[in-house]
Write a structure and sequence with these properties.
Mean pLDDT: 87
Shape: globular
Low-confidence stretches: none
Largest sheet: 5 strands, parallel
Radius of gyration: 13 Å
Strand order of the largest sheet: 2-1-3-4-5
Length: 123
Amino acid sequence: MSKPFRISILTNDLARTDLELSHLREQGYIVETYQAVGNLQLAQPFPDLFIIDTTSLDQFNLVTQIRHLSPHVGVLVTIPLTNQEGRVQAFLAGADNYLVRPYEVEELLAIVGSLKRRLGWIK
């Protein structure tokens, strides 16, 4: 039996992640959520994928920290629709992909599945 794919969601709004949590768990993912600011250490050992879902500019610093500490972990950043500059910043900081808020759960699941393949979990 293979180990489960682990996802940590770093957010500044834990209530907003409830829908995502239930859908990701239905797909068999092990998902944990953390308050984003200052809690990167709580997500140890690092998961297979971080979803950074914050509204602060610190999200790009979190991406940089994650990349420095564990370059092979997947990183998905959510970005508000109005923040076009943030899309470029996410990639420059080291994110694998971004998702524009608001988004459909199906879009989230598709991107997570794509990152899971890229990370070598699906052959």
